[in-house]
Amino acid sequence: MSDTLQSVSGGALADASNAAWTDRYTHAVMDTFGPPQRVLVRGEGAYVWDADGRRYLDLLAGIAVNALGHAHPTLTAAISAQLGTLCHVSNFFATPTQIGLAERLLHLAGAPEGSRVFFTNSGTEAVEAAFKMARRNRGEDGSRTRVLALEGGFHGRSMGALALTAKAAYREPFEPLPGGVEHVPFGDTAALEEAFSPAAVAERGGVAAFVLEPLQGEAGVRPLPPGYLAHARRLTADAGALLVLDEVQTGVGRTGSWFAFQQPEIGGGVLPDVVTVAKGLGGGFPVGATIAFGERAATLLGRGQHGTTFGGNPVAAAAGLATLGVIERDALLENVRHVGAVLSSEIEAAGNPLVAGVRGRGLLLAVQLTRPVAADVAAAALEAGFVVNAVAPDAIRLAPPLILTADQARDVARFFAAVTVPDTTVPAERES
Ligand SMILES: *Cc1c(COP(=O)(O)O)cnc(C)c1O
Q1: Are residues 210 and 280 in the same domain?
Q2: Ligand 1 atom, smallest distance to 247 CA
Q3: 374: in domain
Q4: Which pLDDT score, from 0 to 100, does residue 190 have?
Q5: At residue 314, does pLDDT exceed 90?
Q6: Which whole number is the average pLDDT over 35-43?
Q7: Mean pLDDT, to the nearest integer, of 375-385?
Q8: Atom of ligand 1 nearest to the CA of 161
Q9: What is the widest separation between alpha-carbon atoms in the chain?
Q10: What is the domain count for the chain?
């Protein structure tokens, strides 16, 4: 650590071991996440190091955040330069980086004339802005009062985003949540039709918005059935409802295109009304955005109707611009498609009886296991020097940096070829 940092940290950041740090963590940090698996002190490229000096290949990237890996020189230089120039301004003012990032996002999203961006600091705030847009989309007679969201979806932990999130364990301790939200069964076209039907509208109100992920991340990297999104587009368009795609996890190149909806197999050529992004956008620096497509969506929130102190911060915007710039300069979308294909085909080809298959897109993948032993597999991976995530009891999520190389992907495949976990199946009781 530098002398300057040491002198202002009051000794709080003195070197310690994983075990010592973890003990301090449990006494100082609120226990919402459980104890940390390791305490990380450094990163470079696709690797991170823990406080004991052990190296790990990072296949989670801060949950789909560190798009350029760790300590990327271009990103670091862009952030440092902006920090040394102008670190923050109020929203009474604007900065070139903020304006530049808004224009860049609109361009990459293929957003039509009249589209606009609202900047946030996180994914959940990007979803909050979309939710507030939905509330403003009540229609002339105020009848569009329902917001639909998909079962299995994850949209964040603030109260509005939580209302859109279906998982009972996340929601119920915090009820009452903002009302008017209705969850529709995953991938069920008939159920979606019912939610928009004249009978449903007469009984429960019109639909203001339908919020969903184009590829569900937290649900275990679960793709929508083919054609579902196009169908949702038709129904929302006919009803004057907003089609809101939560691309907080899938955006910024993660699936091999700038946004997941841009892939014909996922989006079916639809153009949404709203897209939320965050995770990968700043390459690790907190920044999010709500992109409104077209004049109608872009003007739902008027002056004074929404705000944030830090959203659109110049350093965050510089991080976003640099991340997008490196993805483009280094052809990382191509890399995502290539390395993602290597990763999934080689893991499947390894033929471990524990592995049922690999699903997902680009570098957002889930390794489906044949038994509910994801926690054991994740622990074994960590011991072997790989950071992965047990996204479901029987599935491992891989969301590595977009800079992952094919050789590194083969290292991962070798781990999945060899991994074993203790057989925990209890032998059936014999008749005696
Ligand atoms: C992570 C995530 C969020 C929440 O983002 P935060 O930055 O954690 O608030 C919202 N939607 C999706 C799809 C996510 O994956």
Answers
A1: yes
A2: 13
A3: yes
A4: 98
A5: yes
A6: 96
A7: 98
A8: 10
A9: 81
A10: 2
